[in-house]
């Protein structure tokens, strides 16, 4: 292939990505746009139901695609709407149109860009829906196909086992909504989640089976190819029309269409054309992890064709394919998922042939058999379910081997360039059968750069993670000599009826804290410090214990602990984690930094005023972390430590008026105040009276509800604050002159 074509293929996506990284704010609607409307909306597909929540893609009369959300008030209302709504339904609905939120912490999943990659730029939170205002227009061809899709998925659910049906529906119809979280998580951890999403592999297998069968019954090749060109877009709709499905079908369609000129058009040109067409249709697809991985892996395999084919034997070639795919996808995998499993290469060797030769074709065969011979199909589905369950159990077994998972963190800028250049040099040396030492250097060099740029950075940090209405503070010492997490955030849950319970209830530990820590290369926490037993401080601690290695859990030595705190202590002990009861006068030292526990007193009554209060000198500043300490606790603290002074105060109880008294603020003399509170929270935190007290003392105020995550980065005794949002992300809301 001419070098110019290769450079064009490399530079076009890179330039496109760079352009949108700089300009997407101008291309997306205003981030704070909200409008109250009553408007007719057409449902594009069957809604998704999760407990009392309904989500559906809808289209306006002007052709805009929105994501509608609605919360049911009772079971009867949910049942009524399930019977009414489907593709083609048109209802007049009242609600609030708004733009999707953006992440308020560094490196986290950007929901707004995720929706934009599906050409959805607005949410519509429905407030009033009436079945009387709904009608059913004439169904379009795509809507008719979606009806067939639903019937096919219901057939699978009715004949396969409870654990097998979700996987079969994922393989045939692109629906991963019913997949068990443990199973899906296991596939992700092992680096084989691409098998669950309809991709080029699935489309190639299904199209290949169709092609072979039609040739066997006597149809000529040209007619089969033309028929496939018509049927592939239909399959994209039957498989849900998700970005991964459309991408796979578009790649297959382009290659198939250009195959009539085989020998004149290089496969890389076909790939490049499909890339251009896809980005012209939806430029925001460039942000999608699946998009990046699909084209990276496919390009890598095409460019390495000579290396792969020179290997002799089926196993050696399969290993070469898996190795190439692993190496070229590694930077993107680390960028989006922050970790890699050392078992990934071997799991692909095991699972890809299994899916290729058995699971995907047998899933299709079993469905066709159910439609043609229901009795035989039902028997076969039962047997096939055993194979699926065994496959899932195998994936879960290997995924539980945490020692093989390397958490390296998100590579940025220079590190990504190192990975890319090293990969090009490695494959160039390999193609020429060069020295293995040079190849080893190419493989290891970017990893070492990554380790010292992210995981073992010389720069330490203290970050107040934005977990909404709660607390979670990360302290990471330089070179990751120690990692401490003060509280985990959490959600106060109220009992719900069974019909209203959601499959995956929101957990800030799962969606915010764990991803944030992993993005920083943190897989081990030296001390998990739980200040007291409130759910908004420790509600996500169980998730932390399950997802990360925790060496020690520190709790206050108090009396009459809350049930949640007791349960967490027991859960930690069952996992072999050391549980330490801290009290006034205890502490520790690490990396030349002493940490002092100032509260609670031994066996004090559990509660806000018995929160663990921690004092430390970090990055040239004295820090005071107060948990939910109230005025009464502050007074006791000053009685015990009359000379207590601090530069940075973690304001108690989210800025409640029951904390941060005038006397306390005057005594400690802090110049900087950190407040962790949820945006538009029900309690009105932080209270205005507290903000007035802080401003009166001319303190610099940082707030997570306004500015997102707040980070203090330090090196050699000096540091600076930066925020994720607001004022360019570098200054406090109120800065002392």
Automatic annotation (TrEMBL):
Annotated Metallo-beta-lactamase domain residues: 469-679
Biological process according to GO: establishment of competence for transformation
Keywords (A to Z) from UniProt: Cell membrane, Membrane, Signal, Transmembrane, Transmembrane helix
Top-level division of the source organism's lineage: Bacteria
Main location: membrane
InterPro entries membership: ComA-like_MBL (IPR035681), ComEC_N (IPR004477), Competence_ComEC/Rec2 (IPR004797), Competence_DNA_uptake (IPR052159), Metallo-B-lactamas (IPR001279), RibonucZ/Hydroxyglut_hydro (IPR036866)
Membrane-spanning residues: 195-215, 227-253, 273-297, 318-337, 343-360, 367-388, 413-430, 439-458
UniProt-recorded name of the protein: DNA internalization-related competence protein ComEC/Rec2
Organism this protein belongs to: Caldibacillus debilis
């Amino acid at each position: 292939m001419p070098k110019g074509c290769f450079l064009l293929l490399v530079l076009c996506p890179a330039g496109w990505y760079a352009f949108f990284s700089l300009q997407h704010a101008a291309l997306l609607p205003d981030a704070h746009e909200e409008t109250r409307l009553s408007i007719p909306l057409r449902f594009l597909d069957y809604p998704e139901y999760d407990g009392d929540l309904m989500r559906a893609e809808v289209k306006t009369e002007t052709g805009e695609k929105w994501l509608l959300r609605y919360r049911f008030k009772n079971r009867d209302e949910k049942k009524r709407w399930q019977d009414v709504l489907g593709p083609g339904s048109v209802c007049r609905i009242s609600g609030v149109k708004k733009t999707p939120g953006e992440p308020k912490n560094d490196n986290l999943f950007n929901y707004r860009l995720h929706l934009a990659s599906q050409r959805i730029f607005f949410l519509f939170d429905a407030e009033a829906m009436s079945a009387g205002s709904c009608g059913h227009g004439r169904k379009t061809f795509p809507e008719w196909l979606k009806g067939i899709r639903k019937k096919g998925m219901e057939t699978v659910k009715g004949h396969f086992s409870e654990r097998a049906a979700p996987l079969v529906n994922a393989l045939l119809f692109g629906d991963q909504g019913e997949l068990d979280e443990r199973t899906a998580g296991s596939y992700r951890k092992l680096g084989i989640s691409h098998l669950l999403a309809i991709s080029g592999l699935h489309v190639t297998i299904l199209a290949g089976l169709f092609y072979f069968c039609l040739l066997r019954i006597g149809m000529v090749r040209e007619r089969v190819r033309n028929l496939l060109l018509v049927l592939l877009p239909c399959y994209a709709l039957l498989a849900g029309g998700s970005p991964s499905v459309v991408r796979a079908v578009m790649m297959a369609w382009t290659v198939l269409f250009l195959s009539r000129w085989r020998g004149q058009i290089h496969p890389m040109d076909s790939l490049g054309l499909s890339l251009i067409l896809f980005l012209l249709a939806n430029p925001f697809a460039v942000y999608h992890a699946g998009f990046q991985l699909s084209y990276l892996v496919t390009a890598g395999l095409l460019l390495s064709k000579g290396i792969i084919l020179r290997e002799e034997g089926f196993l050696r070639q399969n290993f070469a394919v898996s190795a190439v795919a692993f190496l070229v996808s590694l930077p993107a995998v680390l960028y989006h998922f922050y970790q890699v499993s050392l078992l990934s290469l071997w799991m692909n060797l095991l699972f890809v042939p299994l899916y290729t030769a058995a699971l995907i074709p047998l899933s299709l065969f079993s469905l066709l058999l159910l439609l043609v011979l229901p009795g035989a199909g039902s028997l076969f589905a039962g047997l096939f379910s055993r194979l699926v369950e065994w496959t899932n159990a195998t994936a879960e077994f290997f995924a539980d081997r945490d020692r093989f998972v390397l958490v390296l963190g998100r590579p940025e800028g220079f590190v990504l360039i190192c990975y890319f250049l090293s990969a090009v040099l490695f494959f160039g040396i390999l193609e020429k059968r060069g020295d293995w030492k040079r190849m080893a250097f190419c493989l290891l060099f970017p990893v070492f750069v990554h380790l010292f740029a992210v995981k073992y950075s010389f720069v330490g940090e203290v970050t107040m993670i934005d977990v909404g209405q709660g607390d979670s503070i990360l302290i990471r010492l330089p070179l990751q000599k120690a990692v401490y997490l003060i509280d985990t955030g959490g959600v106060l849950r109220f009992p719900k009826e069974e019909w209203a319970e959601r499959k995956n209830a929101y957990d800030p530990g799962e969606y915010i804290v764990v991803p944030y820590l992993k993005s920083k290369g943190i897989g081990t926490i030296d001390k998990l410090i739980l200040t007291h037993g409130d759910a908004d401080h420790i509600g996500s601690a169980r998730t932390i214990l399950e997802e990360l290695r925790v060496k020690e859990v520190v709790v206050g030595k108090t009396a009459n602990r809350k049930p949640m705190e007791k349960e967490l202590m027991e859960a930690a002990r069952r996992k072999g984690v050391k549980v330490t009861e801290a009290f006034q006068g205890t502490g520790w030292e690490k990396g030349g930094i002493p940490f002092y526990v100032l509260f609670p007193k031994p066996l004090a009554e559990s509660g806000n005023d018995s929160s663990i209060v921690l004092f430390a000198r970090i990055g040239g500043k004295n820090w005071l972390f107060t948990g939910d300490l109230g005025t009464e606790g502050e007074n006791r603290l000053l009685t015990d430590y009359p000379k207590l002074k601090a530069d940075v105060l973690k304001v108690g109880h989210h800025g409640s008026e029951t904390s941060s008294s005038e006397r306390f603020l005057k005594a400690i003399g802090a110049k900087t105040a950190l407040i962790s509170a949820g945006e538009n929270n029900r309690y009105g935190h932080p209270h205005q009276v507290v903000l007035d007290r802080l401003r009166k003392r001319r303190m610099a105020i940082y707030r997570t509800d306004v500015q997102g995550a707040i980070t203090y980065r330090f090196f050699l005794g000096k540091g600076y604050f930066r925020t994720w949002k607001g004022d360019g992300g570098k200054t406090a809301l109120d800065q002392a002159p």
